Amino acid sequence: MARFRDGFGEIRAHLDALHAPGGPYRVVCAKSGETPAPLSGYRFDDRQTAAEATDVAATYRAYLRLYDPTVPFADLIVCEDVDPEPETSRRPATVNRE
């Protein structure tokens, strides 16, 4: 567990520094597919940065568990969002009505 002298504030600042709005990578719980606190809404430019964020978030959650032992454990993994094919590139289905 990484050490942060100033606790939650320092951890949040570190995550904010890693965050890249619109980045293709995010962190989710392997079991639920949900993004747990403190990573909700955070995106990352590359897999390595997102992996660093998983370590920082695990530390955050461990600190949180010191105050609230009911905080669930989460197996955090990095995933890349793949944009589906844009709507405009799809051709409508046609029906031959002769």
Describe this structure in words.
- There is one protein chain.
- Strands 1-2 form a two-stranded antiparallel ribbon.
- The chain contains 2 helices and 2 strands, in the order H-E-H-E.
- With 98 residues, the chain is of the alpha+beta class.
- The chain is globular, with a radius of gyration of 19 Å.
- The model is unreliable at 84-94 (pLDDT under 50).
Set down the secondary structure blueprint.
Blueprint: H1 8-18, E1 25-29, H2 47-67, E2 76-80
Antiparallel strand pairs: 1-2
Helix pairs in contact: 1-2
Feature tags:
98 residues; alpha+beta; single chain; 2 helices
Shape: globular
Considering DSSP H and I runs of 4 or more, what fraction of the residues is helical?
25-40%
- The number of helical elements comes to 2
The radius of gyration over CA amounts to 19 Å
Measure the end-to-end span. Answer: 70 Å
Number of strands: 2
Regions with little confidence, pLDDT below 50 for 5+ residues:
84-94
Structural class by secondary-structure content? alpha+beta
Strand order of the largest sheet: 1-2
Mean pLDDT: 84
Question: What amount of the residues lies in strands?
Answer: 5-15%
- Biggest pleated sheet: 2 strands, antiparallel
* Secondary-structure element pattern, one letter each: HEHE
